[in-house]
Amino acid sequence: MAIAAGRLKDKVSSWPGVSVHPHRFAAREYRFGKAEIGHVHAWGDVDIPFPRPVHDFLLERHLAEQHRWVPPSGWTTFRIRGDSDVEHAVWLMRLSYLRYALKSATSPSELLKSEAQRLHLSQDLVAILARFIPAGVAPAVGSIPA
User: Fold this and answer.
1) What's the topology of domain 2-101?
2) 10 Å Cβ neighbour count for 13?
3) Helices (H) and strands (E) in the chain — how many of each?
4) What is the pTM of this model?
5) Among 46, 49, 52, 115, which residue has the least CB neighbours within 10 Å?
6) What is the pLDDT along the chain (146 residues), one digit of tens a residue?
């Protein structure tokens, strides 16, 4: 599990604006500015907070599970059981990162467009994430490929 967690740390900590901090319960926390984008426990549980629409989208499609200790919240859990699960854990962390990055990006519509392509996001998920583009910035949702 340590190798998988190390691979995740290498990827997530390389994103602009991300810092790594100790977290309680034997975990490593990743933040974008002051906002937590998620944390990873030593035993492989990846806990990630999402706004309710993203949370529900992920749970409905079995892309993450409800958090075991705070199920009525927006927190999700994904369990890394082996090396093959690391990429999905990184994908989930990138979704969390993206919602904060959209708020501070110089060109949030372009960021969403490029991340939608890179992460192979569905139109439904892109529409949900477009809600995090600050008011007054027209999202280019219609031009984002599926």
Assistant:
1) Aspartate Aminotransferase, domain 1 (3.90.1150)
2) 12
3) 5, 6
4) 0.88
5) 52
6) 567 778 899 999 999 999 999 998 888 999 999 999 999 998 889 999 999 999 999 999 999 989 887 767 889 999 998 888 999 999 999 999 999 999 999 999 999 999 999 999 999 999 999 999 988 765 454 444 33
